Amino acid sequence: VIGQDDPHVVQAAIDIRPRGIVTSFTAGEPQDGGVGVIDNDIVVGNPPTRLASAQGIEPAGIAGVLDACAAAAVAHAAGASTESISAGLAAYRVDAHRGEVVHEADGVKFIDNSKATNPHAVEAALAGLSDVIWIAGGQLKGAEVDDLVEKHHLALKAAVLLGQDREILAAALKEHAPELPVVLIEDTDGEEAMQRTVAAALQHAEAGDTVLLAPAAASLDMYSGMSQRGDLFALNARKLTQGEELKQ
After folding, report:
1. Least enclosed by CB within 10 Å: which of 100, 219, 244, 246?
2. Residue 195, CB half-sphere, CA atoms under 13 Å: how many?
3. Does the pLDDT value for residue 248 go beyond 80?
4. pTM score, two decimals?
């Protein structure tokens, strides 16, 4: 099963010349009867048969759509019926803190990707998104963030930074996106910090935007783990969009 959107994979398949069933997947129009996306539908075959809507796939964003297409391509090559593949895609729910849509309010979507604890994971979380209010920060553990910010800052509408290494992220944003609104949360108590973080994100969020928790950093500076960090994000997303005031 070949990912047609990655030129390195395509070239490797040409060089290796694999035997047996060779099929492909893509986020665009499918080739040679493989799996792809046409008019926001995941399709397979030639002529294409609809499998599922590409909208609402978990995790949110292009990375989730590509995962779904890859899984569908494997299942189709193994002989699964289109009905079974459709049912599998419809039933799939991402594990907690891995790109889960935890809340929606007034047209704003809240995505918990607390498990994105390094810049590479954040690249996948941001791929295909736009108008993002990015919540990030924690323990970077020496990870470089300049490449991440340089590649993806155009997808950002604002950033809210918390945790031990927030200043490092702020410096990268100042270098590569000096016009981007950036809020630094100084609180060191995890619960208070996340409450103020979500409140600050809401100050920049409008209908159609995405508030994305994708920290690029570990969580143990203020939380028991990435699960607690994500749970507090979801809790405050729900609470602060229901008219409850930020604690003073």
Report:
1. 244
2. 12
3. no
4. 0.83
What residues have CB less than 8 Å from 86, skipping those under 6 apart? 50, 51, 52
Pick the closest to residue 159 from 222, 189, 203, 96 (CA basis): 203
Residue 248 to residue 158: CA distance in whole angstroms: 23
CA 173/CA 74 separation, integer angstroms: 40
What is the CATH number that goes with domain 2-91? Answer: 3.40.1190.10
pLDDT digits (tens, 9 = 90+) for 178-188: 999 999 999 99
Which residues neighbour 56 within 8 Å (Cβ) at sequence distance 6 or greater?
none
Q: What is the pLDDT of residue 106?
A: 93
DSSP 95: P
Q: Which residue carries 């994979």 as its tokens?
A: 9
Return the percentage of the chain with pLDDT > 70, whole number. 98
Per CATH, the homologous superfamily of domain 100-240 is: Mur ligase, C-terminal domain (3.90.190.20)
Question: Hey, what long-range contacts does 227-231 have (CB within 8 A, 24 or more apart)?
Answer: 227/96, 227/97, 227/114, 228/190, 229/114, 229/138, 229/190, 229/194, 230/96, 230/97, 230/100, 230/102, 230/112, 230/114, 230/115
Residue with tokens 């499998």: 51
Q: What residue spans define the domains of the chain? A: 2-91, 100-240
Strands 132-136 and 156-161: parallel
